[in-house]
């Protein structure tokens, strides 16, 4: 698991690309500049690790485009010590970004293969989620609610009600909603039954599947 000066240089170039695309949160940019994304990918993709692109990983899933990771994370407005829920651990790259920001991360993955790989791999890099579970993301993690923010890293055909219910007042849910193309959507919980909804344009994600695999 090498992280060379070349890799570090490529990361700084990636950070510059994200700045040019409009990412302004310095903590998010610093996290992307620090985390060795190439280690989260199949070794044959090393040349592509620091391009602003999504790539395939195990179980027919993808590691999201760095811009998408940065965009979603920026919308969460994470502060150190925040309790956050991630739906779709995937490769663990987004998890690492949240850990780097000082969040207490609870994460759910429904692909058994990915769950096994990632739960072993993340601690090796020094990223320890509070809880990493194999389960159905549509249900959230009721026993740990409420959360300051919730991020969904797969395209959801609809907004799962349990996720809205598990936000604290003032909490933020960032979720890509749609079938083939998704609209990045932010819900801010303003009251017991009240939510403010804002949409941020189109993105493409692998689908969020119900039940476990």
From TrEMBL:
<keyword id="KW-0489">Methyltransferase</keyword>
<protein>
    <recommendedName>
        <fullName>Protein-L-isoaspartate O-methyltransferase</fullName>
        <ecNumber>2.1.1.77</ecNumber>
    </recommendedName>
</protein>
<dbReference type="InterPro" id="IPR000682">
    <property type="entry name" value="PCMT"/>
</dbReference>
<dbReference type="GO" id="GO:0004719">
    <property type="term" value="F:protein-L-isoaspartate (D-aspartate) O-methyltransferase activity"/>
</dbReference>
<keyword id="KW-0963">Cytoplasm</keyword>
<comment type="function">
    <text>Catalyzes the methyl esterification of L-isoaspartyl residues in peptides and proteins that result from spontaneous decomposition of normal L-aspartyl and L-asparaginyl residues. It plays a role in the repair and/or degradation of damaged proteins.</text>
</comment>
<dbReference type="Pfam" id="PF01135">
    <property type="entry name" value="PCMT"/>
</dbReference>
<keyword id="KW-0808">Transferase</keyword>
<dbReference type="GO" id="GO:0032259">
    <property type="term" value="P:methylation"/>
</dbReference>
<keyword id="KW-0949">S-adenosyl-L-methionine</keyword>
<feature type="active site">
    <location>
        <position position="64"/>
    </location>
</feature>
<dbReference type="GO" id="GO:0005737">
    <property type="term" value="C:cytoplasm"/>
</dbReference>
<dbReference type="InterPro" id="IPR029063">
    <property type="entry name" value="SAM-dependent_MTases_sf"/>
</dbReference>
<comment type="similarity">
    <text>Belongs to the methyltransferase superfamily. L-isoaspartyl/D-aspartyl protein methyltransferase family.</text>
</comment>
<dbReference type="GO" id="GO:0030091">
    <property type="term" value="P:protein repair"/>
</dbReference>
